[in-house]
Write a structure and sequence with these properties.
mainly alpha
Length: 183
């Protein structure tokens, strides 16, 4: 007995534009702020060479929770940028496999983000009970971002399934049928 769980499908993005347009917009909507966050994390917060030295040689400079959060944030940004580039190329070129890779990567990304948020909140809340309002803002922003990513999975799945159905409707490569009536 198999359990059939499928992702819901939509016909268009946000009730107004095509799936392809929506998928391209989705990749750009996540790529631009992530690139900005990555750039700001390296170039705004003080001396970059000291930060890099601290991160590459923790035994000399000390290794605290803030550095772990910075590393985790940077890794998440890089992964999300890679996923967005994969999705952008997949949408523009109409590649089913690239869209599926984005779906899998995003589901894993969302799961890891929730686990990290739970662990970080528990750690911070245990050590600082007076920061509950800050954790509330954190969870509100996480819920918004992850909600958009989950809608994105539904959107990209619909687009990818449409690509797959169109590919299945085409005759095999090199297969030509003769017309039944003379031209």
């Amino acid at each position: 007995m198999a359990i059939d769980m499928s992702i819901p499908r939509v016909e268009n993005c946000c009730c107004c534009c095509s799936l392809k347009c929506g998928v391209i917009a989705l990749s750009i909507v996540f790529m631009v702020p992530t690139l900005a966050n990555l750039a700001l994390s390296f170039f705004v917060e003080g001396n970059v060479s000291l930060r890099v030295a601290r991160l590459t040689n923790p035994s000399v400079f000390g290794f605290y929770g803030a550095e772990l959060i910075e590393i985790g944030d940077t890794i998440c940004d890089v992964v999300l940028i890679i996923l967005c580039v994969i999705l952008l190329v997949g949408a523009i070129k109409g590649k089913y496999l690239l869209c599926r890779i984005w779906i899998f990567g995003t589901i894993v990304f969302v799961t890891i983000m929730f686990i990290c948020a739970i662990a970080g909140s528990a750690h911070q809340g245990m050590n600082n009970p007076e920061i509950a309002h800050e954790l509330g803002f954190l969870w509100a922003s996480i819920a918004f971002e992850e909600g958009l990513l989950i809608y994105g999975v539904i959107l990209v799945n619909s687009f990818a399934e449409g690509l797959r159905e169109r590919e299945a409707a085409l005759p095999a490569y090199g297969h030509v049928e003769e017309p039944s009536e003379p031209i």
